[in-house]
Amino acid sequence: MSEQKVYEVPREVADLMVERASHEKLRDTFAKLPFGYKKAVKHSRLAEKCRTEYWEKVSEIYPELRGRKVITGGNFTGIWEQPPGPVDSSIK
Asked: Which of 42, 71, 76, 87 is the most buried (most CB within 10 A)?
C-alpha cells in the first residue's frame, strides 16, 4: 500500500474551521432557546462563510486538489486525498 501525500494547511487557515465549529455550536444552542432563531441563523451563516473561506484558501494554496475528494484531519492542519472506493469508517 502506498503512502498518501499529506498536504499541510497553515494554522491561520485551519483556524477558520475551528471558528466554524464554534459557530455551529452556538447555532445549535440558540436554536434550542426561545426567541433564539435570529441568532441561530446568524451563526449558521457565519459557519458557512468560514467553511467556504477555508476551502477557497486551500484551493489557492493547492490548486491541484480542486475537484478532488479530500479528507481533512481532526485539527484541520492536514488534507489527504480520499482513496477510490468505499471509505472505511472504522479507521480512526
From this structure: 76
